[in-house]
Amino acid sequence: MDAYLRRTAMWYGGVGLLTASVFRNVVLPRRDLGLVVAEIETMGVQSLGVALIAAIFTGMVFALQSAVNMARFGAESYVGPVVAFAIFRELGPVLTAILVGGKVASGITAELGSMKVTEQIDALRSLGVNYVRRLIVPRLLAALVVFPLLTSLADLVGILGGMAIMFFERGADMWAYWNTTTYWVVPKDFLTGIGKSVFFGAIVTLIGCYNGLSTEGGTEGLGRATTATVVHVTMGVIISDFFLTKLFLMLFY
């Protein structure tokens, strides 16, 4: 038990120290901006399909379940706002962060971990290269752009999926659905989820980078680190979502 608590404290402390180091080096020279663009393509474009497929089916399932149950109380006309609130505030940012974040963070861990076990990180240090600015900061800046954009697209696709299922399955009028939704949903509901996605992007990237840089034990240790990253990202997103929800409710509601 003591060993587990010690490892946990060391992990959180290591992530905190890495975060502080990243913020000290967050300003990149102009020549390194191409690294950010390359990471945006790797994180965003290659993860677009995963995020949108998950979003549209989530919207359809949530709309179908809500319609069946709300029809008991004669409130089926309010399915649109309920679906929009759920997707904008929670389902959009959280599912995008878990699915895309797990993919992105495990890839970062595998890449940086392979560099660590083959001593490429040590070689960069010996050459005087700031490996934090070179390897981590571009990934963090890219994540701060990619995650809000993916979440915005996922929100839109999820809403359209809910609208489609209500039209084809329940025979709802699409204009009435849309008008009811836009009447009750306000911009701060959308911006709350986007704000969460910014924090989720930072959390996902920092966890992936730290687990990669702390990899030990060769290829076997690399496999363990990659697996642990998926678990850490999932738990980090879920736990931080609670505190971010409390924060945004106090600030905006």
Describe the secondary-structure layout.
Layout: H1 2-24, H2 33-43, H3 48-70, H4 79-117, H5 120-126, H6 131-170, H7 174-184, H8 187-213, H9 218-252
Task: Describe what this molecule looks like in 3D.
The relative contact order is 0.16. Helices cover 85% and strands 0% of the residues. The model has no long low-confidence stretch (mean pLDDT 90). The longest helix has 40 residues. It is mostly helical.
Short structural description:
With about 250 residues, this protein is mainly alpha-helical.
> Which regions are unreliable across 5 or more consecutive residues at pLDDT < 50?
none
- Classify the secondary structure makeup into a structural class: mainly alpha
Query: Measured on Cα atoms, how large is the radius of gyration?
Result: 21 Å
Quote the beta fraction: under 5%
- Main sheet attributes: strand count, strand direction, barrel closure: none
Question: Number of helical segments?
Answer: 9
Distance between the termini: 41 Å
Tell how many strands the DSSP assignment holds.
Answer: 0
* Morphology call: elongated
Helix content: over 70%
Q: How would you spell out the order of helices and strands?
A: HHHHHHHHH
Average pLDDT confidence is: 90
